[in-house]
Amino acid sequence: MTEISPQEAGSAKSAKSAGSAESAESAESSRPTPTAPLAEPSGPGRSSTRRAVAAASIGNALEWFDLVVYALMASYIGRAFFPADDPGVQLVQTYAVFGITYLIRPIGGLLIGAYADRHGRKKALMLSIRLMVVGTLMMAFMPGYAAIGILAPLGVVVARLVQGFAAGGEFGAATSFLVERNEQRKSFLGSFQFASQGLSTLMAAAFAAGLTATLSEDQMTSWGWRVPFVFGLLIGPVGYFVRRYVDESPVSPTSQVSQVSPSPSPSPSPIRAVFRHHWSGLLIAGGALVVSTALNFILQYLPTFGIKELGLDDSLSFVALFVAGAILTFGTPVVGLLADRFGRLRIMVPAALLIGASAVPLFLWLTRSPSFLTLVLCMAILGLLKAAYFGALPSVMSDAFPAEARATGLSFSYNTTVAVFGGFTPTIAAALVTATGSQVSPGYYLLAVAFVSVAALGAGARFHGIR
Fold this sequence. Notes:
By secondary structure, the chain is an all-alpha fold. Helices cover about 80% and strands about 0% of the residues. The chain is built from 21 helices and no strands. It has helices at about 5-30, 45-70, 75-80, 85-100, 105-120, 120-140, 145-150, 150-180, 185-215, 215-220, 225-245, 255-260, 270-275, 280-310, 315-340, 345-370, 370-390, 395-400, 405-420, 425-435, 440-465.
């Protein structure tokens, strides 16, 4: 039997320990690396986050710019594409197309959202902006009813369907892309989703006010309403370029594939996962959005309300919307910062209750003292309340879904809510005024939906731990 010296035994023990450590280290390195939120250190991290915000915001602003322009130019588009003896019927027809095309948005949300969950947020964002440019191109150059007859309104419907499909996938992909950059700042980063919508309202209102102030009624009906859509075509390539060269979301499926293995097993369908396991998330996210969506379209309806019902000047009415758009653009990120620091529901619940409580008094004030100043003040108050409510809303909605089904769940809940409570809100508001003879009736509608959103926020706190 060979004798082992103490020195040899110590060496063997050390080698064994080193081998065990090496094995443990190897095993540790073979495990999938968990996804951590991107921090924002100085240098490349901060630069990457800024590019991500720019990519999401520019494209999102373009898509919402085209949607808002249609609502603001509704009376002129109606004359060009929907001839009728009664101007009121003509306006309802135009708004009906505005609402009908929102019905395709849940489909676009499901398909583009699932594409984002499977193939990456970046690819989905590039797809949605390409589709929106196609729809905008059709709207900008579609001949009127006088030139091609019934094909003109049908062409408008097709263009709006393409725009609605593209916008349907935009929200889920863009919101996921933003909130996933940094867990500690997700309310602030997510707020740019809605701040960019405020920017689109700002730009659309500026075009509407400038065009109606400088062009005659006939010029606006003939070609003036097309100018904003042509402008949208110029923004499209810029948004596409920025999105193409931005970094992918850190928890995107494409990022996970590169970290885990080069050939992962097929993931389950995000659409199937959402409808099987995340019904509560759909109801909470959609319910929380209701009051914000309804208020958004009430703000877009108010300039037309001021023109048609109160006899206010066209350009001045659009200036009032410009003021509200400025508040939404610059106030929303401030609310996002505050929500990250103090808590989201602490800000959102009081804002929703104030929206419901102030709606009817503001409509009464506007109808009893119809003036430009009253319209501006009413829209400024509603704009402030909306900014306070929806600054943290994207991150709240995101927390209702896991990362692997987030874009799909966000897209479907958002677009279904927008289709029901948003796309038809101008039509509902106009119909309520016509049916009841009361010009304050849209305020009661806003009061009702405010309670729906407060209930949804309460459910989110109880069942998903959203704070």
